[in-house]
Design brief:
heterodimer, A: mainly alpha, 21 helices, 73% helix, B: 4-stranded antiparallel β-sheet, 4 helices, 28% helix, flat
Chain lengths: 435, 121
């Protein structure tokens, strides 16, 4: 094996590990996300060429950041007026880092802080949520704009333009890069978690492009959440979110059928295929999310929101993971978790799912009565979710013709994709049963 | 870093001058102004007359034409502006949140960074 082979096989891994850290560092120095990205990008291009010839350095991340910083200094010198403040900082930084007696731990910690600050910057509330998602994928996860466009079924140019505009706003409006003040910290963490959750759902509930799940997005969201936990281990709801993502994604091998575009219902999944390591990790993080919260909640309803929404959803996913077979699912516990979830946020989606769980404890008829409430004026009133759930309940009590009619109503709301073909299969099964 | 606050609201949302709630509302503005001056962030600011008093100039085909009214007919209209000097957008947003128009829920404030002309030259 030549040095070159080594470089190519390792560069992806190094890119993944060092991209955000390097952009964060450069962004802290320059206050310009685009410039930081460009310098780091160039550093990687140079790295491949140099490493191919002379082999991998001991500290590739440090190497990348040093080269990127030099690019930034070059740039700053060329345009002194614009970044004169940064120049001085850089020269100071240069002096400090040339002192090799450096305390590497403290440098690492500083970069950790920068990286966390970069995540908060990308998820700043002054930026639209869609742009927060794209910026986070580009700047923090290091995803190429082309791949982001692909994942969101958007044009490459459109994504590039969006990203540029968002980065320009950060620079021109001077959205600060730093840790939010203490009084805003909880809210800002929620925003970061919401962005990660959105990325996960975009992948997990993908109903487009011939993929029932976009693994690129679910994988990135899990990595992002892990990064958030590493950088800020104190936030319990991040553990809850991580548990939710791990426990949900653990089912992926059983949830996707023979073709990429085929969904398998929870009841029909081969649970042997669930990823056990992810389930174990999920339980671990769920426990962390719940630590010291159990006692508080027994004191009364007022404290019920002490557990976050992601932790509660993770607890529901955990109930499924605990059941060796579908028939062993503890639906009563799941109904209670949904009550808790609805107490946190009264969303019709949670209510719908509670009805499903209720259909296993009190029977499909009471669940159908519950659904009636959603048919009027709720956000889900004419949604495929409501129609399909109703169809499923009707089928279970033998009202097959009505069930078929409701599956058709559901399909009418859907574009072609995995969910639609899944429901079409249901109709075919029912049609066979009715003869 | 300089920012402008552009204040806008729908007609007849706030209290009428001298009417119910006016005193409270106008003293809230006085307090905000004083606090902003004291903190050293407020450079200038004025309320403006309603859009019915506006005249808009537009150059169409080399000829400057006058239009009796604001830029665009929208529900919300500009009712005033401030010029402030803040550390960054976050500080600018914190001050903007406290402007009575927003704090009382009578309208919206748009925060716009001001172009630094010295950096352009």
């Amino acid at each position: 094996m030549t040095a070159g082979d080594g470089v190519y096989s390792q560069i992806d891994e190094i890119h993944r590990a060092e991209w955000a850290r390097s952009v964060a560092r450069l962004c802290r120095l320059s206050g310009d996300v685009q410039l930081a990205e460009d310098c780091v990008q160039e550093a990687f291009v140079i790295a491949v060429k140099v490493w191919e010839r002379s082999g991998m350095p001991d500290n590739p991340g440090g190497w990348i950041r040093t080269v990127a910083r030099r690019r930034l200094i070059d740039f700053a010198r060329r345009r002194r007026t614009q970044v004169s403040g940064a120049v001085q900082l850089l020269i100071d930084a240069e002096v400090n880092s040339s002192n090799q007696a450096d305390d590497f731990d403290s440098i690492d910690r500083a970069i950790d802080d920068d990286e966390l600050a970069l995540i908060f910057l990308c998820c700043h509330p002054a930026i639209s949520v869609t742009d927060q998602v794209m910026l986070t994928l580009r700047v923090v996860a290091g995803m190429a704009p082309r791949d982001i466009a692909h994942a969101f079924f958007a044009g490459h140019e459109a994504v590039r333009t969006r990203l540029l505009r968002a980065k320009r706003k950060i620079k021109s409006a001077k959205i600060p890069m730093g840790l939010p003040p203490a009084e805003q910290l909880a809210e800002r963490f929620q925003q970061v978690q919401a962005v990660i959750y959105l990325i996960f759902n975009e992948g997990y509930l993908s109903n487009r492009g011939g993929h029932a799940q976009r693994m690129d997005l679910t994988r990135e969201s899990i990595r992002l959440c892990e990064k958030l936990l590493t950088l800020a281990p104190g936030n319990q709801e991040s553990h809850g979110l991580f548990a939710l993502l791990l426990l949900t994604d653990a089912r992926a091998p059983a949830r996707i059928g023979e073709s990429d575009n085929e969904l398998v219902a929870l009841e029909d999944q081969d649970r042997e295929l669930w990823r056990k390591d992810q389930i174990v990790a999920g339980f671990y993080h769920l426990q962390k999310a719940m630590k010291d919260k159990g006692q508080v909640e027994q004191k009364g309803k007022a404290q019920q929101d002490a557990l976050g929404r992601y932790a509660v959803q993770a607890a529901i996913a955990a109930e499924h993971a605990k059941a060796a077979r579908y028939s062993q699912t503890n639906w009563a516990a799941i109904v209670q978790w949904y009550d808790r979830l609805i107490a946190i946020e009264n969303s019709p989606v949670y209510y719908l799912n509670r009805c499903v769980a209720l259909s296993f404890t009190e029977g499909p008829n009471s669940a159908l009565q519950g659904l009636a409430e959603l048919s009027q004026g709720s956000l889900l009133a004419d949604s495929y979710q409501l129609h399909a759930t109703r169809a499923n309940l009707l089928a279970r009590i033998g009202r097959l013709k009505e069930a078929i009619a409701h599956y058709h109503l559901a399909i009418a709301q859907l574009d072609d994709g995995a969910i639609k073909s899944f429901l079409q299969q249901r109709i075919e099964q029912l049609q066979k049963a009715t003869g | 870093m300089k920012y402008t606050y552009i204040l806008a609201s729908e007609p007849n949302t706030g209290p009428d001058v001298g009417g119910e709630g006016w005193q409270d509302y106008s003293s809230a503005y006085r307090e905000w102004n004083q606090a902003a001056v004291k903190a050293g962030i407020l450079t200038a600011g004025e309320p403006v007359h309603p859009p019915s008093t506006a005249t808009t100039l537009r150059n169409t085909g080399g000829e400057i034409k006058l239009h009796d009214g604001p830029f665009a007919e929208t529900k919300e209209c500009i009712i005033g502006w401030y010029l402030v000097e803040c550390k960054d957008l976050e500080e600018a947003i914190e001050w903007a949140k406290k402007i009575p128009l927003v704090a009382y829920g009578f309208g919206a404030v748009e925060v716009r960074p001001v172009v630094d002309m010295t950096a352009l030259s």
